[in-house]
Amino acid sequence: MKFIDSFVVKYIKKDKKNFLMSITKQLSEFLEKGIKCDIVANENFGRLKIELYESNDEGDLVYFNGLSLTNDVAEWLLNSTEYRTFSRELKIENSFIVDIEVSDFSDDFVKGLILKNNVAYVLLSKKDTEGLTNNEIAKIVVKTLVEKLFESNFDEEEFEIELEAELTDFFS
User: Fold this and answer.
1) pLDDT, tens digit (0-9, with 9 covering 90-100), for 42-57
2) What is the bridge-based pairing of β-strands 45-55 and 119-125?
3) For residue 47, what are the β-bridge partners?
Protein backbone atom coordinates (compact mmCIF):
# COMPACT_ATOMS: atom_id res chain seq x y z
CA MET A 1 0.00 0.00 0.00
CA LYS A 2 1.28 3.49 -0.77
CA PHE A 3 0.09 7.07 -0.48
CA ILE A 4 -0.57 8.57 -3.92
CA ASP A 5 -2.28 11.96 -3.52
CA SER A 6 -4.61 14.13 -1.49
CA PHE A 7 -6.99 16.95 -2.35
CA VAL A 8 -10.07 18.69 -1.04
CA VAL A 9 -13.43 18.01 -2.68
CA LYS A 10 -16.64 19.96 -2.22
CA TYR A 11 -19.91 18.38 -3.28
CA ILE A 12 -23.50 19.53 -3.06
CA LYS A 13 -26.78 18.16 -4.23
CA LYS A 14 -28.07 20.82 -6.64
CA ASP A 15 -31.55 20.96 -5.11
CA LYS A 16 -30.02 21.65 -1.65
CA LYS A 17 -27.76 24.54 -2.75
CA ASN A 18 -30.09 27.38 -1.67
CA PHE A 19 -30.76 25.67 1.65
CA LEU A 20 -27.02 25.34 2.31
CA MET A 21 -26.47 29.02 1.46
CA SER A 22 -29.12 30.06 4.02
CA ILE A 23 -27.61 27.77 6.67
CA THR A 24 -24.12 29.12 5.94
CA LYS A 25 -25.40 32.67 6.39
CA GLN A 26 -26.92 31.75 9.76
CA LEU A 27 -23.71 30.04 10.84
CA SER A 28 -21.76 33.20 9.95
CA GLU A 29 -24.08 35.20 12.20
CA PHE A 30 -23.51 32.71 15.03
CA LEU A 31 -19.75 32.95 14.51
CA GLU A 32 -19.91 36.75 14.85
CA LYS A 33 -21.55 36.15 18.26
CA GLY A 34 -18.81 33.74 19.33
CA ILE A 35 -20.58 30.46 18.59
CA LYS A 36 -18.81 28.16 16.15
CA CYS A 37 -20.67 25.40 14.31
CA ASP A 38 -19.41 23.10 11.59
CA ILE A 39 -21.31 21.43 8.79
CA VAL A 40 -20.59 17.71 8.78
CA ALA A 41 -20.36 15.85 5.49
CA ASN A 42 -23.58 14.03 4.65
CA GLU A 43 -25.53 12.69 1.66
CA ASN A 44 -26.46 16.22 0.50
CA PHE A 45 -23.27 18.25 0.86
CA GLY A 46 -19.77 18.17 2.23
CA ARG A 47 -16.23 19.47 2.08
CA LEU A 48 -13.65 16.76 2.63
CA LYS A 49 -9.98 16.21 2.34
CA ILE A 50 -9.48 12.98 0.43
CA GLU A 51 -6.30 11.00 1.02
CA LEU A 52 -5.72 8.40 -1.67
CA TYR A 53 -3.79 5.21 -1.16
CA GLU A 54 -3.44 2.34 -3.60
CA SER A 55 -2.71 -1.34 -3.34
CA ASN A 56 -2.85 -4.56 -5.30
CA ASP A 57 -3.05 -6.54 -2.04
CA GLU A 58 -6.32 -7.79 -0.56
CA GLY A 59 -7.43 -7.17 3.01
CA ASP A 60 -9.50 -4.95 5.27
CA LEU A 61 -8.64 -1.26 5.63
CA VAL A 62 -8.16 -0.38 9.31
CA TYR A 63 -7.78 3.14 10.70
CA PHE A 64 -6.22 3.61 14.12
CA ASN A 65 -4.73 6.38 16.18
CA GLY A 66 -3.02 6.35 19.50
CA LEU A 67 -0.71 7.84 22.05
CA SER A 68 2.98 7.30 22.67
CA LEU A 69 5.13 8.28 25.63
CA THR A 70 8.72 9.31 24.92
CA ASN A 71 11.57 11.04 26.74
CA ASP A 72 13.10 12.49 23.56
CA VAL A 73 10.57 13.76 21.01
CA ALA A 74 13.20 14.61 18.38
CA GLU A 75 14.67 11.10 18.52
CA TRP A 76 11.19 9.56 18.49
CA LEU A 77 10.30 11.50 15.35
CA LEU A 78 13.53 10.51 13.62
CA ASN A 79 12.98 6.85 14.46
CA SER A 80 9.30 6.82 13.43
CA THR A 81 9.99 6.12 9.79
CA GLU A 82 6.58 4.57 9.22
CA TYR A 83 4.90 7.96 8.88
CA ARG A 84 3.35 8.13 5.38
CA THR A 85 5.17 4.99 4.29
CA PHE A 86 3.93 1.42 4.25
CA SER A 87 5.40 -0.76 6.97
CA ARG A 88 5.07 -4.54 7.03
CA GLU A 89 5.81 -4.50 10.75
CA LEU A 90 4.82 -1.32 12.58
CA LYS A 91 6.70 -0.88 15.87
CA ILE A 92 5.97 2.04 18.16
CA GLU A 93 7.27 1.49 21.69
CA ASN A 94 5.48 2.75 24.79
CA SER A 95 2.27 3.30 22.88
CA PHE A 96 -1.46 2.92 23.34
CA ILE A 97 -4.04 2.60 20.55
CA VAL A 98 -7.09 4.68 21.47
CA ASP A 99 -9.30 4.37 18.40
CA ILE A 100 -9.84 1.73 15.74
CA GLU A 101 -12.23 1.74 12.80
CA VAL A 102 -12.57 -0.87 10.07
CA SER A 103 -13.93 -0.09 6.61
CA ASP A 104 -16.94 -2.30 6.12
CA PHE A 105 -17.33 -2.10 2.36
CA SER A 106 -15.35 -2.65 -0.80
CA ASP A 107 -16.03 -2.58 -4.54
CA ASP A 108 -14.10 -2.69 -7.81
CA PHE A 109 -12.58 0.79 -7.46
CA VAL A 110 -12.66 1.57 -3.73
CA LYS A 111 -11.22 -1.26 -1.65
CA GLY A 112 -11.84 0.61 1.59
CA LEU A 113 -13.00 4.01 2.82
CA ILE A 114 -12.93 5.50 6.31
CA LEU A 115 -14.31 8.97 7.09
CA LYS A 116 -12.70 10.63 10.12
CA ASN A 117 -12.93 14.33 11.03
CA ASN A 118 -13.71 15.51 7.48
CA VAL A 119 -10.92 13.40 6.02
CA ALA A 120 -11.75 10.43 3.81
CA TYR A 121 -9.00 7.80 3.80
CA VAL A 122 -9.53 5.90 0.56
CA LEU A 123 -7.80 2.72 -0.53
CA LEU A 124 -8.07 2.35 -4.30
CA SER A 125 -7.59 -0.66 -6.50
CA LYS A 126 -4.39 0.18 -8.38
CA LYS A 127 -5.32 -1.82 -11.49
CA ASP A 128 -8.88 -0.45 -11.73
CA THR A 129 -8.08 3.21 -11.11
CA GLU A 130 -4.74 3.54 -12.90
CA GLY A 131 -4.95 6.40 -15.38
CA LEU A 132 -8.02 8.06 -13.81
CA THR A 133 -7.87 11.80 -13.11
CA ASN A 134 -8.47 13.29 -9.66
CA ASN A 135 -11.86 14.55 -10.91
CA GLU A 136 -12.86 11.02 -11.93
CA ILE A 137 -11.61 9.60 -8.64
CA ALA A 138 -13.44 12.33 -6.66
CA LYS A 139 -16.72 11.35 -8.35
CA ILE A 140 -16.13 7.70 -7.48
CA VAL A 141 -15.34 8.59 -3.85
CA VAL A 142 -18.39 10.86 -3.46
CA LYS A 143 -20.58 8.16 -5.02
CA THR A 144 -19.16 5.59 -2.58
CA LEU A 145 -19.68 7.94 0.38
CA VAL A 146 -23.28 8.74 -0.54
CA GLU A 147 -24.29 5.17 -1.37
CA LYS A 148 -22.30 3.08 1.11
CA LEU A 149 -21.62 5.31 4.11
CA PHE A 150 -24.68 7.59 4.06
CA GLU A 151 -26.92 4.87 2.54
CA SER A 152 -28.60 7.17 0.02
CA ASN A 153 -29.03 7.23 -3.75
CA PHE A 154 -26.38 8.90 -5.91
CA ASP A 155 -27.08 10.35 -9.35
CA GLU A 156 -24.08 12.25 -10.74
CA GLU A 157 -26.40 14.64 -12.62
CA GLU A 158 -27.92 15.79 -9.30
CA PHE A 159 -24.57 16.84 -7.77
CA GLU A 160 -21.99 19.57 -8.24
CA ILE A 161 -18.51 18.27 -7.43
CA GLU A 162 -15.51 20.58 -7.27
CA LEU A 163 -11.86 19.97 -6.38
CA GLU A 164 -9.71 22.44 -4.50
CA ALA A 165 -6.05 22.21 -5.44
CA GLU A 166 -3.69 21.24 -2.64
CA LEU A 167 0.06 20.89 -2.68
CA THR A 168 1.12 17.46 -1.47
CA ASP A 169 4.26 15.44 -1.31
CA PHE A 170 4.41 12.67 -3.85
CA PHE A 171 5.78 9.39 -2.55
CA SER A 172 7.04 6.97 -5.15
Assistant:
1) 999 999 999 999 888 8
2) parallel
3) 10
